[in-house]
Amino acid sequence: MAVVHWPVELQHGQVGLRPLKASDGAEWSAARQRNISWLRPWDATQPPGAEDGARTFRSMARDWNRQARYGRMLPFVITYAGAAAAGSRAKRPLVGQLTVSGITYGSARWANLGYWVDEQYAGRGIVPTAVAMAADHCWFNLGLHRIEVAIRPENKASLRVVEKLGFRYEGDRPRFLHIDGEWRDHRIFALNVEEVGPGLVARLR
């Protein structure tokens, strides 16, 4: 597979996407620990007998970035200027994660998109903006045709994201992904590039 341009940084208003880095370990772990009860119902888990073995955050980040350089995935963290202290010039804090995975080229040209956000920043339009930027990048810079999002029926916050952006509901997939210790049903939402006009960021405006 051809090497693609990576790293990539995207920005719209106060919301940013930048590559997940090995040096993000402490900040990422603190956010995950702080939000453990908020995120656990939606977290992917390994089914019995499929454990890959423990690995460090640093090795995970390096592996994901290596895959990104070969066009297989895009491991972003979500940043938010509104999370910085007033008057601070420090880097924008990490408030979540967005991953484009399963990137497929050839005659398919599609990918899956998943995300999470720190509970204290939920409801501020951060995730819809991040999803819009990532999807537009995939369509208009990577040349993908289809972006798909799989969401558990109970995850009302994530359902609001795709509804706000106009993703098309395509139906349910029973026991689709292993989440929170069990195989869980998911609702599938998708958009093709022909359906988005100038893009999803433009829709937000």
TrEMBL record:
Domain of life of the source: Bacteria
Keyword Disulfide bond assigned to the entry: answer is no
Q: Does the keyword Nucleotide-binding apply?
A: no
Under InterPro entries, the record lists: Acyl_CoA_acyltransferase, GNAT_dom, N-acetyltransferase
Q: Pfam families annotated for this entry? A: Acetyltransf_3
Which residue range or ranges hold the N-acetyltransferase domain? 15-194
Q: Which UniProt keywords apply?
A: Acyltransferase, Transferase
Instruction: Please report which protein family the annotation says this sequence is part of.
Output: Belongs to the acetyltransferase family. RimJ subfamily.
Q: What is this protein called?
A: Ribosomal-protein-alanine N-acetyltransferase
Q: Which organism is it from?
A: Kribbella orskensis
